[in-house]
Amino acid sequence: MEMGHIRQHRLSxxxxxxxxxxxxxxxxxxxxxxxxxxxxxxxxxxxxxxxxEAVQKLVARGLLISRQGGGNYVSDSLGSSFSDPLLALIxxxxxxxxxxxxxxxxxxxxxxxxxxxxxxxxxxxxxxxxFDELQDCYxxxxxxxxxxxxxxDARFHLAIAEASHNFVLLHTIRGLxxxxxxxxxxxxxxxxxxxxxxxxxxxxxHQALFDAIMEGRADDARRIAGEHISYVQGMLEEREEESxxxxxxxxxxxxxxxxxxxx
Length: 263
Prior knowledge:
Radius of gyration: 25 Å
CATH class of the largest domain: Mainly Alpha
CATH superfamily of the largest domain: GntR ligand-binding domain-like
CATH topology of the largest domain: Four Helix Bundle (Hemerythrin (Met), subunit A)
Number of domains: 2
Strand order of the largest sheet: 1-2
Order of helices and strands: HHHEEHHHHHHHH
CATH architecture of the largest domain: Up-down Bundle
Number of helices: 11
Helix content: 55-70%
Number of strands: 2
Distance between the termini: 118 Å
Shape: elongated
Structural class: mainly alpha
């Protein structure tokens, strides 16, 4: 019986798999420059030509971008699911903000659940750092800008997604990061204007979520994350109802009602 040849697995294929894993798990992020060929060769224990071949394969597949004289980078397109024009369109539509919060309700509850179950010591350290940054913004009440607070809030939720160790959840959150950041800034401004106690409520919610994940209480983490988004949804709806009431009152105020009665 004639036996077929067994195709030998090339070293470059092994390197491709390693780099793919690093991109999937977030070790290599969109736009990040790869280490030099020599450093990668030493890390993987292979020759530089094998590294070069692996990089060329990933460039051909659109995962990496090679810049003449400037090194190799993870493709920026991997980090954004929404173009800038689409982001602007969504920002200007209240109904789109509702849709985003509905999406976050499911997505972030699951992220919190898996983060509480799967977080490593390194994940918890990174989550602690993101939480401390957010707490610092809260502590600098009146001094931290809404943009700073919104970015810190989004980074905290991104750190939870990273700790979930679910590739799809992580890259979905990553792809939505700019949208989440901008939406959070918008929501924060409206909520703070509506109720003075909003800041304290958000501080307590994030603290409870952080504690549940750090202590491995997965079911509590999922519930608290869902309650947090529900709170923001409720505040957004209340703000919009307040705006509608104001608009109705302004329409009822006729120009001739302010005139002095004729004698």
